[in-house]
C-alpha cells in the first residue's frame, strides 16, 4: 500500500475515501471483494499512478473485470507493498529473537564471570583452609556454583535452539512470500514481473555463454468471444487449461509465464529454432486436441486454439525489441488464420 493511501486511511478522509471506493466500484459494475476494494483504494488514492491508468484502460475498453483480472493487477501493482509489510513483520520477529539471544548471552557472560570469581575465591581459601570442615564448605560452595552455571548454560542452549528454529521458520515463510509475489495466482505460472526478471537474466547468461536464446509469445484465439459466450468463470478455467499444457512443456531451463490477460510467454535458453518450433507445435496441437466441458452445465465448449510467435535473440538484443519481434510473429499467426506458430525469421525472409 502506498504511503499516501496508508496515511489517508488513518486520517480525516478515511471514510469518505472508502465510501467513494464503494460508489465507484458499483458504478463500474465491479464486485466489492476485499481485493477489488484494495485495488480501488489505490486507484482512487492515486488515479494517475500506473494502477489507476491500467484500471481506467480496462474500464474504457469495456474489458470484463474478473477475479483473474484483479489477481493480475494485484500481482503486478500491489505485491511490493505486501512484500514490504511481510518483510517488516519478519524484521520485527528477527529483532525480537536477536535481542532475546543477546540477553541470554550477556546473562551467560555475567554468570561465567561470577563463576570465575567464585573459583578464584575458592583457590585462595584453599591455601588457607586449616581443617576438613573448611574444605567441606569450599567444596560445597564450588559444587553449587558449578551446578548454577550448568543450569544457565542449559537455558542458553535451549534459547539458541528455539531461536534457530524460529529463524528457519521465518526464512521458509519469506521464501514462500517471495514465490507468491512472483506467481500468477490463477495459473500458478510465473507472473509478468518474474518473467521480466527471468528474461533479463537469461539474456545476460546467453550472451556470456554465447548460446542461442528464444522468446515465444502465445495467445489464446478468440478468448474474448469465449468469455462473452460462456462467462468469466469458464474463461478462467480455459486460462488454467492452456497454462497447464504450457507449464508441462516448460521444464527447466525453459521458463513459462502468464504475461497478460490471455497471453503467455516462454523463454527457451540454449535451444535451436527447430527445437523451439517443435515444442511450440506440440503445445499448439495438445491444446487443440481436447474438447473442453463447462463444469457447471457439462456443455461441450469445443476445442480451444492458440497462436504463437517466436524470435531468436540477436547480438546485443534483449527485452523489448526481442519481445516486439516475437509479438510481430504472433500477429502474423493471427493474420494467417490463427491456430499456428510463426517464427520471426520467416517474417524477415518474407520481407
Ligand atoms: P483442475 O480442475 O484443478 O484440474 C487439475 C487436473 O486434475 C487436471 O489437469 C486433470 O489432470 C485432473 N482432472 C480434473 N478434473 C478431471 C476430469 O474430470 N477428468 C480427468 N480425466 N481429469 C481431471 P489438466 O487437464 O491439465 O487441467 C488443468 C486445468 O484446466 C483444470 O484444473 C481446469 O481448471 C482446466 N480444465 C481442463 N479441462 C477442462 C474442462 O474440460 N472443462 C473445464 N471447465 N476446465 C478444464
Automatic annotation (TrEMBL):
Entry's Gene Ontology BP terms: cell adhesion involved in single-species biofilm formation; negative regulation of bacterial-type flagellum-dependent cell motility
Pfam families, per the entry: GGDEF
Keywords: Coiled coil
EC number assigned by the record: 2.7.7.65
Keyword Transport assigned: no
CDD domains, sorted: GGDEF
Catalytic activity annotation: 2 GTP = 3',3'-c-di-GMP + 2 diphosphate
Coiled coil: 146-180
Residue span, GGDEF domain: 211-346
A GO cellular component annotation in the UniProt record: plasma membrane
Molecular function terms from GO: diguanylate cyclase activity
UniProt xrefs under PANTHER family: DIGUANYLATE CYCLASE DGCM-RELATED, REGULATORY COMPONENTS OF SENSORY TRANSDUCTION SYSTEM
Protein's name according to its UniProt entry: diguanylate cyclase
Organism annotation: Brevundimonas lenta
Organism phylogeny: Bacteria, Pseudomonadati, Pseudomonadota, Alphaproteobacteria, Caulobacterales
Amino acid at each position: 500500500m502506498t504511503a499516501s493511501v496508508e496515511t489517508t486511511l488513518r486520517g480525516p478522509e478515511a471514510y469518505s475515501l472508502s465510501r467513494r471506493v464503494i460508489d465507484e466500484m458499483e458504478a463500474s459494475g465491479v464486485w466489492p471483494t476485499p481485493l477489488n476494494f484494495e485495488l480501488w483504494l489505490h486507484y482512487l488514492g492515486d488515479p494517475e499512478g500506473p494502477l489507476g491508468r491500467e484500471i481506467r484502460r480496462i474500464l474504457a475498453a469495456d474489458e470484463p473485470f474478473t477475479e483473474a483480472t484483479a489477481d493480475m493487477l494485484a500481482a503486478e501493482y500491489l505485491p511490493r507493498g505486501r512484500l514490504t509489510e511481510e518483510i517488516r513483520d519478519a524484521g520485527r520477529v528477527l529483532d525480537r529473537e536477536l535481542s532475546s539471544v543477546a540477553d541470554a548471552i550477556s546473562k551467560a557472560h555475567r554468570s561465567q564471570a561470577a563463576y570465575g570469581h567464585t573459583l578464584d575465591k575458592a583457590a585462595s581459601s584453599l591455601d588457607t583452609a586449616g581443617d576438613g570442615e573448611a574444605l567441606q564448605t569450599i567444596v560445597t560452595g564450588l559444587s553449587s556454583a558449578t551446578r548454577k552455571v550448568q543450569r544457565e548454560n542449559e537455558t542458553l542452549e535451549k534459547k539458541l535452539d528455539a531461536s534457530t528454529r524460529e529463524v528457519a521458520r521465518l526464512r521458509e515463510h519469506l521464501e514462500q512470500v517471495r514465490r507468491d509475489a512472483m506467481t500468477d495466482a490463477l495459473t500458478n505460472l510465473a507472473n509478468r514481473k518474474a518473467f521480466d526478471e527471468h528474461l533479463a537474466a537469461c539474456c545476460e547468461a546467453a550472451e556470456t555463454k554465447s548460446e542461442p536464446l528464444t522468446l515465444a509469445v502465445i495467445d489464446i484465439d478468440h478468448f474474448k468471444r469465449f468469455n462473452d459466450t460462456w462467462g468469466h468463470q469458464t474463461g478462467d478455467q480455459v486460462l488454467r487449461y492452456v497454462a497447464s499444457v504450457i507449464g508441462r512443456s516448460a521444464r527447466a531451463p525453459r521458463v513459462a509465464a502468464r504475461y497478460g490477460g490471455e497471453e503467455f510467454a516462454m523463454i527457451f535458453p540454449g535451444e535451436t529454432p527447430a527445437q523451439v518450433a517443435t515444442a511450440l507445435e506440440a503445445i499448439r496441437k495438445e491444446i487443440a486436441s481436447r474438447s473442453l466441458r463447462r463444469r457447471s452445465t457439462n456443455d461441450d465448449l469445443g476445442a480451444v486454439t492458440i497462436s504463437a510467435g517466436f524470435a531468436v535473440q540477436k547480438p546485443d538484443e534483449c527485452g523489448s525489441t526481442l519481445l516486439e519481434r516475437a509479438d510481430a510473429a504472433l500477429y502474423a499467426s493471427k493474420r494467417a488464420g490463427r491456430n499456428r506458430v510463426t517464427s520471426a525469421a520467416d517474417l524477415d525472409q518474407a520481407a
